[in-house]
Design brief:
Elements lengths: L4 H37 L5 H26 L1
Helix pairs in contact: 1-2
């Protein structure tokens, strides 16, 4: 049995980068919602923060959906 170490390291690298990117996007979404709550408590408007948060969550959902598509197809 021969292990293709180059392919294994490539898969590991891509998985690591995508995982970190998804966690960062989700974190940005949570931070956007937190800023919206803070701005609302101070009496301001935070439409940009909410829009950015929803965009981050949509990007996370799209990436997860694409990953499921790759596995199933």
């Amino acid at each position: 049995m021969k292990i293709d170490w180059e392919a294994l390291s490539s898969v590991f690298g891509v998985s690591l980068v995508v995982t970190v990117a998804l966690v960062a996007l989700f974190t940005l979404g949570i931070m956007g919602l937190t800023r919206q709550e803070r701005a609302t408590a101070q009496g301001g408007s935070a439409a940009l923060a909410v829009t950015g948060a929803y965009a981050c969550f949509a990007a996370c959902a799209a990436a997860v959906t694409y990953g499921i598509y790759l596995i199933v197809a």
